[in-house]
Amino acid sequence: MTLVACNNQQRPGRASAEPGSIFMVEFDAPFGMPPFDQIRFEDYKPAFLAGIEQEDQEIEAIANNPEPPTFENTVVAMDNSGQLLARVSRVFYGLRGAETNDSIQALARELSPLLSEHSDNIYLNEALFNRVKTLHDDTTGMQLTTEQYRLLDIYYKRFVRSGSMLDEARKERLREINKELSGLTLQFGNNLLSETNDYKLVINNEEDLAGLPEGVIAAAAETARNQGEEGKWVFGLQKPSWLPFLQYSEKRDLREQLYKAMYTRGDNDNDNDNKEIINNIVNLRVEKAQMLGYNSHADFILEENMAKTPANVYDLLNEVWAYALPQAKKEAAALQALVDTEGGNFKLASWDWWYYTEKLRQEKYALNEEELKPYFKMENVREGVFEVANRLFGLSFRKLENVPVYHPEVEAYEVLDADGSHLAVFYSDYFPRQGKNAGAWMSSFRTQVTRDGENIRPLIYNVGNFTRPTDTAPSLLTLDEVETLFHEFGHALHGMLSNVTYAGLAGTSVSRDFVELPSQVLEHWAFHPEVLKLYAHHYETGEVIPDELIEKINAASTFNMGFATTEFVAAALLDMEYHTRTQTGTIDVRGFEEQAMKKIGLIDEIIPRYRSTYFSHIFSGGYSAGYYAYLWAEVLDADAFQAFADKGVFDQETARLFRDNVLSKGNSDDPMELYKRFRGAEPNPVYLLKNRGFVE
Ligand SMILES: [Zn+2]
To answer: DSSP 3-state assignment of 423?
Structure first.
């Protein structure tokens, strides 16, 4: 640990250093961690500009190399280019997601067209494309490994898909489209962040807290204090705030108010409205796809995924929908019956679903989330997921003290492999803050790569928006949050265990419908009885979670699954409706969505998991024509976990096969080939249906 303390000291003269210079060389903090304590806002822009210029020069040098193209002087050279830009981008966009402010938002807007143009300058560079094409057209005699051929093929397709084959006029139009799209998708996200942060439900009257658990009330009081509303209670549109309110509040009118605020985000005809932006995005995507020779944006996107075609996506979604919708209707009827028994005298609405579901859950399974939460202190859950990684892969985690992090709530760990060697750095950042986007995600400040014979290890982080600690209680997670923590950690393992040669193929740089396999498979460990006993200890008494509660959790595991599946598939189908469009033209967003939902027979009591105007996955997050991917990957993860279920959750041989063939391989081979090497066969979709309780 001496290394840590020593490197953490402020460098003398830093205050007067040239802006941006901190990014010019590899960071000299421990393990190459970004020195957040020394990075100033003024450093970003000069570093971005220098990074763009540096990569432009590198690309020019490759494109104009007088030597004939070889794998080394062209493909490897490209994979090695842009290191400065990557270094600053990873830090900057990491903070833009997790700890942003007005300056960062403004700079992101300023950079977006520059970066889009920069990318076009690379992928529309004719001389460079010709070199890649020459290699790709004839690989005989090159003796490429599988990984090398894959890298070449990926670059080649990236050029083609970026418009390298188009004439000059079309290339020009494509550049315009890309620039516009990058601005629009950014704007969509910014609007959503404002809509989420701008709203609050302020409660003045203690009676209006009826039904809410103590912890939820305490958190709302604290939020109120932080926002200058001392003595009141504030609820907002971050999930840890709205969800428990919907689950427990006895005040139907307030539930309606809060829920409507949640689901009208971006649809309020104000400055943050996203409907026009959606129009522009969808139409530009149609135009771009057709210019490149595809029928629709979905055809363009899916070609690169395991699913390959929209038809394959619809097949899966429709098959699952056929099980989910009838189940959801049964669930709605049961909830309505509960309303009626209570003399409610109203038709169940979408803002009632959670409340009555919670009641029914308690009635049927005597399972109360509040009773469970003491066993899921955030720190214990994190220890639990570390323990799972230890038992499966021999990894161990050493807390790093006094290392630079971007917020005091961020914690960092050195991850050691089974043989004690350094594997990675893992950061966790789990609580909601003003400057943090909603949701949970994994990314990295540096990916794994083997360069000049040295295996450079990655810096991986997980960000979440889980229940905050309060003055009186630590962070106690809901089951949903526990599952999310395991999920994101599965992505983290994919990043940390990566062991490839080329940066472009490392870790999670795989197709959208494969990337959710490592994350979703890890969810299966979260509530396995054997695993719960390892980590689910009462935060006050230390008592191991009793068998009776474990049984209840597992008995209730498919409860409300009709709803969960229906709201998910509805959103996935909405995504496909937008992105299989083959014609440009004005879209009436509200009407379009309504039509799409009517077509599949969605019931009034359920709204899609994301409505259009806050569907950031598809309009600002890179999951366009890709939201289905979670379900696609579930076919894989349910089948993959079956291998462990058959042989034991910590079976060493199965774990080794999974690590060697999937987790360490990044995108170095075709995903189905990787999967078959692990499992010995293609996945059987029946395990997904079993998992969700749709078949026995
Ligand atoms: Zn994920």
So the answer is: strand
d(CA 557, CA 400): 36
Average pLDDT, the chain: 94
Is 488 known to be catalytic?
A: yes
244-286 residue pLDDT tens: 999 999 999 999 999 999 999 999 999 999 999 999 999 999 9
Residue 46: how many CB atoms within 10 A of its CB? 16
Distance 487 CA to ligand 1 centre (A): 6
d(CA 682, CA 639): 9
Out of 58, 358, 488, 634, pick the active-site residue. Answer: 488
Spatial separation of the C-alpha atoms in residues 111 and 115, rounded to whole Å: 6
Ligand 1 (ion): residues with CB under 5 Å are 519
Count of H-run helices and E-run strands, the chain: 28, 9
Phi and psi at 196, nearest 5°, equal -70, -45
Q: Dump pLDDT digits (tens) for 115-135.
A: 989 999 999 999 999 999 999
Return the sign of the alpha-carbon dihedral for residues 687, 689, 695, 696: positive
Q: How far is the CA of 229 from the centre of ligand 1 (A)?
A: 36
Cα–Cα dist 446/448, whole Å: 7
Residue 399 CA to residue 113 CA, distance in Å, equals 39
